[in-house]
Amino acid sequence: MFENLSERLERSFKILKGQGKITEINVAETLKEVRRALLDADVNYKTAKEFTETVKAKALGQDVLNAVRPEQMMVKIVHDELAVLMGGTAAEINIKGNPAVILMSGLQGSGKTTFSGKLANMLKSKRGKNPLLVAADVYRPAAIEQLKVLGEQIGVPVYAEEENKNPVKIARNAVQHARTYGRDLVIIDTAGRLAIDEEMMNEIESIKKAVNPQETLFVV
């Protein structure tokens, strides 16, 4: 969500540029764009509405310092509230298991494949894990090749079944492959999906049931 969302938020904050102070009118205009950006990023309507109402209350309750421009204050408030929305505090990732399985999910274009590679590299170099990347995105052209390139760059093997179009079977087979070849961590890269796409949501649920992951990470 954040790469695309951040661009939309930056545009919304420009409404406050040149304004001498935060007012109910310019806050309303800004938050209208913020809410629209959140909805376009597939954030639940109720969540987006509550988020913007909280930001509005805090923005109108702030005494803006002379050294701080209104848009800077709004950026800080939105940033802080997004951090709260996403959980507020950092949580340790669970990599206990033989193998431990991490299932990647998220919107289309959110960067799941790239993040999968970065996560594998971090857990390999800093936590001493022996990871296996799994190409379970059977819909996006070149998804498998992209993951293979990333795997080669970081020295992590990639499990793929290029003729198999069933991501559930691919994921299940990959976990068995990891057990056979002594890989203690499996990171499954899946296709992007929207919450309104029932078929794709059922698919990720089926993958989850098939591999019983220690972690399911939603890439935003």
Write the topology of this structure.
Blueprint: H1 2-13, H2 24-40, H3 45-60, H4 70-85, E1 100-106, H5 112-127, E2 131-136, H6 143-154, E3 158-159, H7 167-180, E4 185-190, H8 198-211, E5 215-219
Parallel strand pairs: 1-4, 1-5, 2-3, 2-4
What does this molecule look like?
The structure is a single chain. By secondary structure, the protein is an alpha/beta fold. It has 2 domains: 2-85, SRP54, nucleotide-binding domain (Four Helix Bundle (Hemerythrin (Met), subunit A), Up-down Bundle); 100-219, P-loop containing nucleotide triphosphate hydrolases (Rossmann fold, 3-Layer(aba) Sandwich), CATH 3.40.50. The chain is 53% helix and 12% strand. It is built from 8 helices and 5 strands; from the N terminus they run ααααβαβαβαβαβ. It has a 5-stranded parallel β-sheet, sandwiched between helices. α7 (167-180) runs parallel beside α8. The radius of gyration is 21 Å and the shape is elongated. The protein starts with a helix and ends with a strand.
Got a strand count? 5
For CATH, the homologous superfamily of the largest domain is named as: P-loop containing nucleotide triphosphate hydrolases
| SS-derived structural category | alpha/beta
Helix coverage percent of residues?
40-55%
Order of helices and strands: HHHHEHEHEHEHE
Unreliable sequence segments = none
How many structurally independent domains? Answer: 2
What overall geometry do the principal axes of the alpha carbons give?
elongated
Count of DSSP helices? 8
* Distance N to C terminus: 4 Å
Tell me the major beta sheet: 5 strands, parallel
Strand content: 5-15%
